[in-house]
Amino acid sequence: MISENLHHKSFLNIGVLGLQGAVEEHIKKIQELGYHGTIIKKPDQLDQIDGLILPGGESTTLRKLMDSYGFFQPLLEFSANKKPIFGTCAGMVLLAKKLEGSEEAYLKLMDIRVKRNAFGRQRESFEVTLPIQGFTSDFPAVFIRAPYIESVGNQVEVLSTYKGHIVAAKQEQILVTAFHPELTEDPRFFQLFIQMIKK
Ligand SMILES: NC(=O)CC[C@H](N)C(=O)O
Q1: Residue 131's domain is classified under what CATH number?
Q2: Can you tell me which atom of ligand 1 is nearest the CA of 180?
Q3: pLDDT of residue 167
Q4: What is the DSSP string of 113-163?
Q5: What is the residue range of 110's domain?
Q6: Which residues are known to be catalytic?
Q7: Closest atom of ligand 1 relative to the 58 alpha carbon
């Protein structure tokens, strides 16, 4: 009985880093798909979850908060244990191995070089439909002061580009999007992340 229940989908517990940014929107998406979503405010909560979403927000603020709450080392361990991480927008900036310009990268968990606020002032926020590798139809992508990926290492699978710039990618158990899948009705990026967790 117990082992059967453990396979029930609601037993997957997906965390959303809850220090700043689009936290509730992600929790809502996880719940809509029938899974348990937990707002993560302390590093010891990482032990309870099967995967973690690093939401959009302001990456400079986020990294300061992550440092002061002691998240840096525990997140490296979380990733070393092959627990999946999904970074959207600022979350993607935090996962990058390199940042364009003088700013030092933060977690350096994914072999991507990221340019922040990359689409310029005129295009602070916009929505486009994009073909995504593995999806059978285009995805509505909402960009807000979005970064893009300038280059990737050979472990990285490019999932989507917009105007020649990489805006979604995957490396082993890490998924990133420059856009905000939590702001559209389309659940496919969350479904993809959940598949990565179940693997
Ligand atoms: N919507 C977002 O997450 C914006 C990201 C922000 N421009 C940054 O670099 O931190």
Answers
A1: 3.40.50.880
A2: 1
A3: 98
A4: EEETTTT-GGGSEEEEEE--TT-SS-EEEEEES--EEEEE-TTPEEEEEET
A5: 13-198
A6: 89, 180, 182
A7: 10
Q: Is residue 1 part of a domain?
A: no
- The reply to whether 8 falls in a domain is no
144 assigned ligand-binding residue: yes
Domain count, the chain: 1
Structure confidence by residue, pLDDT tens digits, 60-111: 999 999 999 999 999 999 999 999 999 999 999 999 999 999 999 999 999 9
pTM above 0.90, yes or no: yes
Q: Which atom of ligand 1 is nearest to the CA of 60?
A: 10
Distance 109 CA to ligand 1 centre (A): 18
Does the annotation place 58 within a ligand binding site?
A: yes
| 8 Å CB contact between 154 and 107 | no
Q: For tokens 């959207």, name the residue.
A: 88
**ipTM at complex level:** 0.94
Contact residues of ligand 1, CB 6 A cut-off: 56-59, 89-90, 93, 116-117, 144-145, 147
Residue 2 in any domain: the answer is: no
- Residue among 85, 189, 175 at smallest CA distance from 132: 189
